[in-house]
Each structure stands twice: as C-alpha cells, then as structure tokens.
From TrEMBL:
It catalyses: sulfate + ATP + H(+) = adenosine 5'-phosphosulfate + diphosphate; adenosine 5'-phosphosulfate + ATP = 3'-phosphoadenylyl sulfate + ADP + H(+). The keyword Ribonucleoprotein does not apply. This is Adenylyl-sulfate kinase. Residues 391-543 form the APS kinase domain. Residues 171-383 form the Sulphate adenylyltransferase catalytic domain. The gene is cysC. Keywords: ATP-binding, Kinase, Nucleotide-binding, Nucleotidyltransferase, Phosphoprotein, Transferase. The lineage of its organism: Bacteria, Pseudomonadati, Pseudomonadota, Alphaproteobacteria, Rhodobacterales. It comes from Cereibacter sphaeroides (Rhodobacter sphaeroides). Residues 5-160 form the ATP-sulfurylase PUA-like domain. Pathway: Sulfur metabolism; hydrogen sulfide biosynthesis; sulfite from sulfate: step 2/3. ATP binds at G399, L400, S401, G402, S403, G404, K405, S406. GO terms for cellular component: cytoplasm. One of its GO terms (molecular function) is sulfate adenylyltransferase (ATP) activity.
Length: 568
C-alpha cells in the first residue's frame, strides 16, 4: 500500500544504545568493505528510500525482480539491489552468519544477517533487467567487469548512515522530506529527477509541470553515481542553487538523492517512481528516454523514446505516484519566451541548443546566450569546464611489446614540452613497473591492477590540468575501458593503438622475450600465449613498421589539434 506523503516511512536503523553495542560486538565479525555503489544502496535501504526492502535481495526476491519486476511476495520492485562480493570473501561466509558492512575507511555502517549466497546468471540479469547483454551499456559493463561474482542476501540492521561532508543542508532522508512537506502543508509534490545542470528550458518545464499538477516542486537530483562522463555533482549542485531564485518563493525545494543510477531506462523510471513515493512525492516528471544510457554497440538507442513513460503508466497505481509528461520546451524568438514544442505559434523562429552543442561551446569558449541558460549557471560550468585547450588530458598508447609505444610516447612528450603551457608526465609501462608496481607479477589479475594504477595516476594528472602520456601494453578491452571512464571524469582520453604487426615486433625484440615466450619459458605473454584484444574504437591508429617515429608522434599532435586540446 502507498503511504500518505506525510506519514513516516519505515527505517532499518536501531536505537543509539543498540547501535553502540553492535559496534562493539562487530569486531569479531567478518567485514566487507563496501564499494561506492553499495554504500549508495545501503544508505537508501537504511533510511527507507528503498522501502519495502528490508535488506539486500534474497535469491528468491532476486529471481522475481529479474524475471517480472516483482519480489517473492508479489510486490512491485524493478531493479536488483544485491550485495555482490568476491569469490574469496564468499568462501568464508555461510547463510546464518552475520557480517559487518563498512565504508572505505573501515567505519561500520550496518550488519547483514546472511540468509542467501548464490552465483547469479549475469547474462540473464543483463538481458532481463537492461534489455540487452551489451557491454556498451554502463550497468552491463559494471555487472560483468566490476561487480563481484557472488551475491549475498539478507536483512540489514542499520547502525549509522554514511557520512557526507558536502552540501549537508541539502541532504534529506525520506522522513526528513516528509516532515518538511507536513510542516509546509504540501499535500501534492511533483519530483524532478535530473543528473544534468538546469537551464532555462528545464526551469520553464518544471514550473509549468508543477502548476499543471497544482503541486509544489521538489528538484531531486542524483548525486550518488550517474553515467560515466557526467558533470560532477559538486558543479551541478552549485548550478541548481543558482536556479532556485528563479522559482516563486515557498513553492520549490532542492534536495539531493544519494542514488547509484543503473541507467536502466523503463525499469529505472519505475524504480525512481517508487523511490520518490518513499520520499513523500505524489507526482513525478518522466522524460523522453528517461534514464537511458545512449547508444548500444550497433549505434542504436538502447530504449525507445517513450518506453519509460509507457511502463511507468502501466504501473502508476502500484507505484503510488502520478506521472507528469516531460514537455520539450523551445525558445520562440519573436515572443522572447519558451513554449512546449507542440504549442509553438505557426511561422515562428524556434531556437534551441542541444547538449552536444552546449558542450562544444563550453569546450571552445564560445558564447552561450542568455535565452538558453542563466548567467550564474554558465559561470559555474565555465569554472569546471574551461576551454579544451586549457584542460588536462591523457594520451594512452596501447599495443604489443616492441610495437614502438614507448618510443613514440617519448617523442610526443618532447614535442608537447617544447610547446609549453601544461606540465607533461610520461607513465611508461616499464618505469611504472619499477616504481609503482614492483610487487606485481604478470598474471592477468596483476596486469589489470598495474594498468588501473596507471589510469588512476593519469586521472589525477588530468584532473589537475596536466598532460599524462601512458605507454603500457594494456591488452584487455575491459581494463582499457575502466581507465577511460576513470580519466573522462576529468578530461579527454585519447587512445592510440600502435598497430605494428607481431612479425615486426618479434624482429625488433632486443630483450629476446618473444623467443622465450615461443619456447614456453615465459607464460601468459601477450600475442603468443595470451590474447591482445584490438581496440575497436581507438581515437588514432598508427603503425611503426614503415614510418618514422617522428611521423607517428606528429600524427598524434595533429589529432590533439583536431580535438582542440592544443592550439594549432
């Protein structure tokens, strides 16, 4: 049953005294250090945001959710909320045990009473929940390449919420929001879900939606985990705060939702509706391609533009939230105001700027007109998205041993240092092995760890406006993708495939590694006894077999100029 929007929603926290006792007793329990996504999930489990869930899904609940969006008892729930752990950790845990759930710093947040342990069929989960077992979908890629292989399920005993040091006054639990609505006398509340900054069209859209629903407005942006490459939440929240003054006073509030999005399209829309119901909302704006992740590996949209709205409408009564259609707003030049796209006066001049065009203008330092966005919002975006020629970036060379990666990387470093303007750091595979990964071997697991360390260092260099040049072998697609996502959170990532044929690499082999590999004296050697997964969409492909190093380095320079990362 849907709760009235002023009544408290059940939480999973115990009393202060019980929590202190559990903290003391937890020292003897096995401990699992939660991932960022698991911390987001746990917080919404404990504070009632995921009501009616009492903990991480059991196997029966998981099967029901995956197959038909229903828990084992028949209640609607579209998205698996599972505790995925490593095989090694799972070996030491059996149903009937309690485990302590801790944050990255070891602070205990909750106790999980394990009732279920199983190895899921992740291919089936991807197909059923996300509609395709396609690694171009960020949640499917996470499922296969980041999530643990074993799931644990069972009820949660909440001890304390995760600590947030940022925007504390903007973070509300479901019951805090319900109390606010009760205090303000808001009986009808329309939620606006967003993971992007708000511009004038969004302000007009949300204002109209609230007016038509005769409701107050909750701007409820996600600040947990969104799509890789999205604008960071610090910048977005400053943009939201800059827009609040544009609404009539006492009609609108802003609250942050620490949700880990799955970008699951139609199912995610239903999930968002249930979460907003728990936060006391009666209405929710559902947009075209709501929570869609973009294109699949064949270049087509994962979901149809209205799939999310149709699934939401079909379950609206059970969700307990009324859907408000997202109306696309466009600016009519002659009227100097925004209109819904289907209400534009005939013969009018319509102006619009797409998200792609906005990013281009920010990247190239071009004007963003006041009819499109608020000056304060543009100012915030320019602070964290300077012109591309002033941003940090990473050039990531990948290729077989002996392909010429390090030589080209050195030549590129010298050319960039000659130009000046930004610090340049070379992270060569052999040098990193010596100084950063000396304890690692050459198993697949250790090679992945080494590449991710390189990616982490490169992301920090990129974040701080420098240029990182990386030259590891990096044979695996999934690891290169993980590094790309790490770096693209802060700047551009340019993958350069040094596609020198293996015959030429062997001919050049000064260390005799290929010979030893063919004799079986070196195990898991890339290109001989271990695969090299060729990049499918590298920004640049070079072959050093018949051209000079200088020419290859110059090709990279030309690519950087073309992308606007360095001045021509």
């Amino acid at each position: 049953m849907s709760l009235p929007n002023h009544a408290p929603v059940p939480e999973l926290y115990v009393s202060y005294d019980s929590a202190q006792k559990l903290k003391a007793d937890a020292g003897s329990l096995p401990s699992w250090d939660l991932t960022q996504r698991q911390i987001c999930d746990l917080e919404l489990l404990m504070n009632g945001g995921f009501h009616p869930l009492k903990g991480f899904l059991t196997e029966a609940d998981y099967d029901g959710v995956v197959e038909n969006m229903r828990l084992a008892d028949g209640r609607l729930w579209p998205m698996p909320v599972t505790l995925d752990v490593s095989e090694k950790f799972a070996e030491g845990v059996e149903p009937g045990q309690d485990i302590a759930l801790r944050d990255a710093e070891g602070v205990i947040l909750a106790i999980l009473s394990v009732t279920d342990k199983w190895v899921p069929n992740k291919d089936r989960e991807a197909e059923k929940v996300f509609g395709a077992n396609d690694l171009a979908h960020p949640a499917v890629n996470y499922l296969h390449h980041t999530a643990g292989k074993v799931y644990l399920g069972g009820p949660i005993t909440g001890i304390q919420p995760p600590v947030h040091y940022d925007f504390k006054m903007r973070r509300d639990t479901p019951n805090e929001l319900r109390a606010f609505f009760r205090k303000m006398g808001w009986t009808r509340v329309v939620a606006f879900q967003t993971r992007n900054p708000l511009h004038r069209a969004h302000q007009e859209l949300t204002f109209r939606a609230a007016r038509e629903a005769q409701a107050n407005l909750l701007i409820h942006p996600v600040v947990g985990m969104t799509k890789p490459g999205d604008i960071d939440h610090f910048t977005r929240v400053r943009c939201y705060e800059a827009v609040l003054d544009q609404y009539p006073s006492s009609t609108t509030t802003l609250s942050l939702l620490n949700l880990a999005m799955r970008m699951g399209g139609p199912r995610e829309a239903v999930w968002h509706g249930l979460i907003r119901r728990n936060h006391g909302c009666t209405h929710m704006i559902v947009g075209r391609d709501h929570a869609g992740p973009g294109k699949n590996s064949e270049g087509k949209d994962f979901y149809g533009p209205y799939d999310a709205q149709e699934l939401f409408k079909a379950h609206a009564d059970e969700i307990g939230v009324e859907m408000v259609d997202f109306k696309q707003m466009v600016y009519v030049q002659e009227k100097a105001q925004y209109f819904p796209v289907d209400e534009v006066p005939e013969g009018s001049t319509v102006l619009d700027i797409s998200g792609t065009e906005l990013r281009r203008r920010l990247r190239e330092g071009l004007e963003i007109p006041e009819w499109f966005s608020f000056p304060d919002v543009v100012s915030e975006l320019r602070r964290t998205s300077p012109a591309r020629s002033k941003q940090g970036f990473t050039v990531f060379f990948t290729g077989l041993s002996g392909s010429g990666k390090s030589t080209i990387a050195n030549a590129l470093m010298v050319k960039l240092m000659e130009m000046g303007g930004r610090p340049v750091t070379l992270l060569d595979g052999d040098v990193v092995r010596k100084h950063l990964s000396s304890e690692l071997g050459f198993s697949k697991e250790h090679r992945d760890i080494n590449i991710k360390r390189i990616g982490y260092v490169a992301s920090e260099i990129t974040k701080n406006g420098g240029i990182a040049i990386c030259a590891p072998i990096a044979p695996y697609t999934a690891t290169r993708r993980a590094v790309r996502e790490m770096i693209e959170a802060f700047g551009a990532f340019i993958e350069v495939h040094v596609a020198t044929p293996i015959e030429e690499c062997e001919r050049r082999d000064r260390k005799g590694l290929y010979k030893l590999a063919r004799e079986g004296k070196i195990k898991e050697f890339t290109g001989i006894s271990d695969p090299y997964e060729v990049p499918a969409k590298a920004e640049l492909v070079v072959d050093t077999a018949n051209v000079s190093v200088d020419h290859c380095a110059h090709q990279v320079i030309l690519k950087l100029e073309q992308m606007g990362l360095i001045r021509a």
